Amino acid sequence: MRLSHPRIAPVRPEDRNDEQRELMKRFKGSDSLNIFNTLLNHPDLMRRWLVFANHVLGKSTLPARERELVILRIGYLCRSGYEWGQHVVIARAAGVTDDEIRCVKQGADAPGWSEPDRLLLSATDELHADAHVGDATWQGLARHFDTRQLMDIVFAVGQYNLVSMALNSFGVQAEPGLPGLEV
């Protein structure tokens, strides 16, 4: 975690107003997550962001495993402990092994990646460093992913770069038991 305490305090369930309670009805079982409780400080922003976030996480054309490799890599590059920890859990459920999770930190140069995995990690690095996927990486990705998937790759990196910036800047604290960046 970049900060040891929140800059923006999460809204506790007992302190929610009617608008906040209504917004949280969609989060059965996830309504205690600090990310959502922090975003409740700005319900209009949260409501609009959720539409996009829901596409990237739940309706993307990317297979879950590939999506999670990208999310883990951008979370790691942004040094977002909260994002990393949440998505280690999600990635494991999507079939990413603990060895692969460790290798995400090394990026595309880690041994053992398939060509599509290596290209996904390279694209993430390029977007993070230069806000652009280079021609060689793009052409390689296009051999494995269709146009909609290519678009979803870029938007997944962008979405989780944004979320990582917010989590880091707001000081959103990880829930107990989440894996840290050292995993």
Could you describe the 3D structure shown?
Helices cover 61% and strands 0% of the residues. The chain is mainly α and 183 residues long. The protein has 2 domains: 13-58, no CATH class; 63-170, Up-down Bundle (AhpD-like), CATH 1.20.1290. The mean pLDDT is 95.
Quickly count the helices: 9
Which value, in Å, is the CA radius of gyration?
A: 17 Å
Instruction: Determine the CATH superfamily of the largest domain.
Output: AhpD-like
| SSE ordering | HHHHHHHHH
**Overall CATH class of the largest domain:** Mainly Alpha
Task: Give the topology, please.
Elements: H1 18-24, H2 34-39, H3 43-59, H4 64-77, H5 81-93, H6 98-104, H7 115-130, H8 135-142, H9 147-170
Helix pairs in contact: 3-9, 4-5, 4-7, 4-9, 7-8, 7-9
Provide a compact summary of the structure.
With 183 residues, the chain is mainly α.
Characteristics:
globular; 2 domains; 0% strand; AhpD-like; mainly alpha; 183 residues; 9 helices
